[in-house]
Amino acid sequence: MKIKKKYPAITLAPFVRYYWYFEIEAAEIPVAQLSFPYGAFELICYLENPNHMRWTNSSYEFTEPEFFYAGQLTKPLVMTFNEPCKCAGVSLYPWAGSHLFNIPAGEFTNELVPIADLEKGNDFYGQLKLAAGEATIFTCLENYLLQKLAPKQNDPVVYALARQIIDQPTRDALNTRLSAIGLSRRRIEQRFMDTTGLSMGAFTRKVRFQKAVHLLKENNARLSFTSVGLKAGYYDQAHFISDFKEFSGMSPKYFQQQKTDLNDFLKTMVLVG
């Protein structure tokens, strides 16, 4: 499996984490991968053969759109590739979720929205399909985003809160930060939801889970699962395992045993401080 990443120009760095590209060749087919809620917002373009997707709590399988915007995901899913695939995308920070299309980010939560439904007459997908090689694809994506994001500014309150949660996803740390903001909890929560697509509580749970994924990836069995949970911000092992199963569809032990190129790639996309 071929995988590439590139970091954005400095103008886009407040909004964009990186550009990515992967390619699954015929010899690797078929590929079936139980996936988990990684990152935050993704702009995704299938240049060749979109995968089939199914939420784990549903029997309904569907083909992903060719070019779409994925909001904050909060539940596991199964991806199946039956044909060679080429896919490129952009990972955005959680505080940039509403910038691209000027729509409250909560409307994208657990949704894969075709760009054709958001921008009528958009011919950017055609331009991407004509791009030769991942370097040209990344340049096309950057030029597209510069037009849409360069004039934008992040909400400083939401940015500070989201960054605090990513750095330290615990209730006590969040409450300390909230007490220093001269706004009502209700007003802050609404701004946070409109920007990130999740409540502060749901975002904290997702970040804790992703931090645990990162620790399991880097751990190599040096830490016990109890220690991993505590370092990720959980108060006890039972809470850690329950949340982990809800987000990933499997136990931490079984998750750590999953060794595929696609799964390893997804693990690099988690939000960590």
Structure description:
The protein is an alpha+beta fold and 273 residues long. The chain has helices at residues 115-118, 124-130, 134-149, 156-167, 171-179, 185-196, 200-219, 225-232, 237-248, 252-256, 261-267, and strands at residues 2-6, 16-24, 31-35, 41-48, 52-55, 62-63, 67-70, 77-81, 85-92, 112-114. The strands form two sheets. Strands 1-2-9-4-7-10 form a six-stranded antiparallel β-sheet. Strands 3-8-5-6 form a four-stranded antiparallel β-sheet, with helices on one face. Helix 4 crosses helix 6 and helix 7 (200-219) crosses helix 9 (237-248). The longest helix is centred in the C-terminal third of the chain and has 20 residues, at 200-219. The mean pLDDT is 92.
Features:
single chain, 273 residues, alpha+beta, six-stranded antiparallel sheet, four-stranded antiparallel sheet, 10 strands
What share of the residues does DSSP label as strand, in percent? 15-25%
Query: How many H/I helices?
Result: 11
Taking the sheet with the most strands, its summary is: 6 strands, antiparallel
Tell how many strands the DSSP assignment holds. 10
> Uncertain runs with pLDDT below 50, 5 residues or more?
none
N-to-C span: 28 Å
Order of neighbouring strands in the sheet with most strands: 1-2-9-4-7-10
Oligomer: single chain
Would you list the SSEs in sequence order as H and E? EEEEEEEEEEHHHHHHHHHHH
Shape: globular
Content-based structural category = alpha+beta
Q: Mean pLDDT, rounded to whole units?
A: 92
Q: Rg to the nearest angstrom? A: 19 Å
Helix share, percent: 40-55%
